[in-house]
């Protein structure tokens, strides 16, 4: 993937590093340095203590906190949107925590402690129930499309064109749990497979099970190096010739010199992960939608509603979503559908 300027590349690397740190107060990324390490504040149905001076859909004089938890995959996109929004509204403080999709739902959003939860898979039924029990109403908004990426070490010279879906299932499922590469293919080295991946709190983990192992299957093997930090997955695979891992495409795109992406064959030939193959639908079954979920109750606050609108209005931006972050933007029709859903929720909230 190409980048327009060195500044954009450097900034994107900062975003990824911030994601590894887990929490960022995005005001610290702009001229306003307040709350650079603040935790999400507790409030019913979302958070943010400051009242807005604007009203309705007006965006002048906005102030207050916006607290976001959830997916590490969506983190760089949320960061890019929040940073731009804060340049226009310096009195709005946006704090983002990278917790994994499930960790964000269970521990923050559905507990009423954050205004948004980012997710790399749809909200689950039990999460909806938890939200309902705490008077939190999630509003599902698609924000981009990702190409979930399997990576191996740069010195891996034996897998050839790539891996089939069946081979990935063999490697990662709890049923077979091969210990050697030769257990997957007798022509491959008799060397131990070192596996790195996200934790079970991650939407990426959930999606990998759905797409590769099957939701009714044996489940994901647990004898692997699990982390919520994508940077750790990159480092682990980079450090061993016989390692394998997976993550969102944006993190791989920042590290194309450190590791190599694996082409995947779903029965119609090997396809490499890219923005083009995700958009065309050729990269199956690992292309996937990404979401953010504002709490409808929080949308009654002008600064939260206006940030949500800003994100949706910018969701078709090739410059932000594709060139800067590394995902496929929404189409104009998708954007309008999300805006209609959002505006209806804002109207109901008020």
Automatic annotation (TrEMBL):
Domain PBP stretches: 58-311
Keyword Oxidoreductase belongs to the record: no
InterPro entries: PBP_domain (IPR024370), Phos-bd (IPR011862), Phosphate_ABC_transporter (IPR050811), TAT_signal (IPR006311)
Annotated protein name in UniProt: Phosphate ABC transporter substrate-binding protein, PhoT family
Keywords from the UniProt entry: Signal, Transport
Domain of life (superkingdom): Archaea
Coiled-coil region(s): none
Ranges of compositional bias, category Low complexity: 25-38, 53-65
GO molecular function: phosphate ion binding
PANTHER family according to UniProt: PERIPLASMIC PHOSPHATE BINDING COMPONENT OF PHOSPHATE ABC TRANSPORTER, PHOSPHATE-BINDING PROTEIN PSTS
Span list, region Disordered: 25-65
């Amino acid at each position: 993937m190409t980048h327009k300027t060195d500044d954009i590349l450097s900034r994107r690397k900062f975003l990824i590093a911030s994601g590894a740190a887990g929490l960022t107060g995005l005001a610290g990324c702009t001229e306003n340095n307040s709350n650079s390490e603040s935790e999400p504040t507790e409030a019913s149905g979302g958070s943010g203590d400051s009242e807005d001076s604007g009203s309705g859909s007006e965006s002048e004089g906005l102030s207050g906190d916006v607290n976001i938890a959830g997916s590490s995959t969506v983190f760089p996109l949320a960061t890019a949107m929040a940073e731009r929004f804060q340049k226009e509204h310096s009195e709005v403080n946006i704090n983002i925590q990278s917790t994994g999709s499930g960790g964000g739902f269970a521990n923050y959003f559905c507990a009423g402690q954050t205004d948004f939860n980012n997710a790399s898979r749809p909200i689950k039924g039990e999460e909806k129930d938890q939200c309902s029990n705490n008077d939190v109403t999630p509003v599902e908004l698609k924000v981009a499309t990702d190409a979930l990426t399997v990576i191996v070490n740069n010195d891996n010279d034996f897998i050839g064109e790539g891996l089939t879906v069946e081979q990935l299932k063999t490697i990662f499922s709890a049923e077979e749990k091969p210990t050697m590469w030769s257990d997957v293919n007798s022509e491959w080295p008799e060397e131990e497979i070192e596996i790195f991946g996200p934790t079970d709190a991650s939407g990426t983990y959930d999606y990998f099970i759905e797409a590769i192992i099957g939701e009714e299957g044996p489940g994901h093997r647990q004898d692997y190096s699990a982390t919520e930090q994508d940077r750790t997955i990159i480092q682990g695979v980079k450090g061993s010739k016989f390692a394998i891992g997976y993550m969102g495409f944006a993190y791989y795109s920042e590290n194309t010199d450190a590791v190599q992406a694996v082409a995947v064959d779903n029965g119609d030939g090997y396809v490499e992960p890219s923005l083009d193959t995700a958009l065309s639908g050729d990269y199956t079954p690992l292309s996937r939608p990404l979401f953010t979920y504002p709490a409808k109750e929080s949308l009654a606050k002008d600064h939260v509603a206006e940030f949500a609108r800003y994100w949706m209005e910018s969701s078709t931006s090739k410059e932000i979503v594709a060139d800067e972050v590394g995902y496929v933007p929404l189409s104009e029709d998708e954007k309008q559908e999300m805006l209609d859903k959002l505006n209806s929720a804002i109207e109901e909230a008020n």
